[in-house]
Amino acid sequence: MTAASSPEEINIRWGEAFNAADIPALLELYEPGAVLIPGPGADPVSGRDAIEAALRWLTATGGKLTYQPRYWLQNGDLAMGRIDFHLSGGTGPDGATVDLRGGTAEVARRQPDGTWKYVFDHPFGASPA
Q1: N or C: which end of the chain has fewer CB within 10 A?
Q2: Cβ(46)–Cβ(8) below 8 Å
Q3: Residues 16-34, mean pLDDT to the nearest whole number
């Protein structure tokens, strides 16, 4: 099951789907107009097609994701989170090792069916400059 029933659960579902390279499951965790920053210093992308392209590249590295939630703050139907992550063991299209670490800045919204989806997903939004 991909749906997240709480803000805290959205990271669990995202990590499971990512490590399984399950693009449809990952996409289900984003609102249709969500914004994703696909990499350090990258421009934001928005919408299902752009987010899917970014996630396809990332899952294609074959790396495994581990993460440590730091906090989730909830106010009604909105929640803001901060998670530390490490993507290791991946390989880029050029054969170079992909090893990413960061601290996320995330905003999720409760949907009418009670599930939570990303509105903003900035994997490097809380990382040191």
Answers
A1: C
A2: no
A3: 96
